[in-house]
Design goal:
There is one protein chain. The protein is an alpha+beta fold. The protein is built from 5 helices and 15 strands. It has a single domain, classed as outer membrane lipoprotein receptor (LolB), chain A (Clam), CATH 2.50.20.10. The strands form 2 sheets. The chain has a 13-stranded antiparallel sheet with strand order 6-5-4-3-2-1-15-14-13-12-11-10-9, sandwiched between helices. Strands 7-8 form a two-stranded antiparallel sheet. Strand 9 and strand 10 form a beta hairpin.
Length: about 250
C-alpha cells in the first residue's frame, strides 16, 4: 500500500499527452533560435536605416551598411548623413574600434555607448543574445492568443551592450516579439518591439525594430532593415589595415 501513491503518479504521467511533461520551453534554445531568425548565421550584409523621432517628428536619420561574419566579427559603415559619411566601426570578438576620416588611428569604443538616437554601438555591431547572455525562463505570457516565453537574460561576460535584458519570444516559432533593456542599477532604459515580419535574406524576419526611450517620453528610434543578402566576406575585411584603406 505504501507504494500505491508512487505507482499512481507513474500511471497518470503515462496517460498524459506526449510532450506535456516537457512543455516548458528551453530558454537557451529559444534565444539561439530567435537570433537565427533576426539574422542568418552565414556571412551577410544588410542595410540599416535609423530614424530618430522626437515628439512625433523626425529629428535625424542615419544609414548604415553592416557586414557580419559569425557573431564575433562585423563592420559597420556610415553611409549617411554626409557629415558622418566614411566613419567605420570594426568589431572583433569583444573589441570595438571606430575609424574616423580625419584621424589616423582607430579609437576604441564600448558596445554600450550611444551611436544615434536610442541605438547603441552594440545594437548594430553585435546582435548575439545567445553568446552574450545566460537565459532563464521567468514566465510564459499569452499575447493576442499566442504563448510567449518571457526570458531573463543576464550578462555572461564583461563588456556586453546591456547588463540585463528581458526578452519576449514566441514559444511555438521562436520569433522575437519584445525586448526590455536595463541599467546595472536595474532601471529600465528602453523597450524594443520587433515588427513588420517579411521575407528578407531568404527567410521571414522582423524588418523593423522600434526602440522606445523609457527615460525621455516621446523619444524613439526606428531601425528598418533592407537589402539583406548572404555573401562571401574575406577575413581581411575585418582587419585594421584593410579598414584604414577603406575609409580613405
Amino acid at each position: 500500500m505504501k507504494r500505491f501513491p508512487h505507482l499512481l503518479l507513474i500511471f497518470i504521467a503515462a496517460c498524459l499527452p506526449v510532450g506535456m511533461a516537457s512543455a516548458a520551453p528551453d530558454p537557451a534554445r529559444l534565444v539561439a533560435q530567435a537570433d537565427e531568425i533576426r539574422f542568418p548565421s552565414q556571412p551577410f550584409q544588410v542595410l540599416v536605416t535609423v530614424t530618430s523621432i522626437r515628439d512625433g517628428e523626425q529629428s535625424e536619420q542615419h544609414v548604415y551598411q553592416v557586414l557580419q561574419k559569425g557573431h564575433e566579427r562585423s563592420v559597420v559603415r556610415t553611409l549617411a548623413p554626409d557629415s558622418e559619411k566614411g566613419q567605420v566601426m570594426l568589431l572583433r570578438d569583444a573589441d570595438l574600434w571606430i575609424f574616423l576620416p580625419d584621424v589616423s588611428q582607430p579609437v576604441r569604443l564600448p558596445l554600450s555607448q550611444r551611436l544615434t538616437g536610442q541605438v547603441a554601438n552594440g545594437d548594430l555591431a553585435r546582435a548575439n543574445f545567445a553568446g552574450d547572455y545566460e537565459a532563464k525562463l521567468e514566465k510564459t505570457e499569452e499575447i493576442e492568443g499566442e504563448q510567449y516565453a518571457v526570458l531573463e537574460l543576464t550578462a555572461a561576460r564583461k563588456g556586453v551592450t546591456y547588463h540585463r535584458v528581458r526578452y519576449w519570444v514566441n514559444a511555438s516559432n521562436a520569433r522575437p516579439y519584445k525586448v526590455e533593456f536595463y541599467t546595472v542599477s536595474g532601471r529600465l532604459m528602453k523597450t524594443g518591439m520587433y515588427t513588420n515580419f517579411a521575407e528578407l535574406g531568404g527567410a521571414v524576419r522582423p524588418t523593423r525594430l522600434v526602440l522606445i526611450d523609457a527615460l525621455r517620453e516621446g523619444e524613439k528610434s526606428v531601425l528598418d532593415y533592407s537589402s539583406l543578402k548572404l555573401r562571401d566576406i574575406p577575413d581581411k575585411f575585418f582587419t585594421k589595415d584593410f579598414l584604414r584603406k577603406l575609409k580613405n
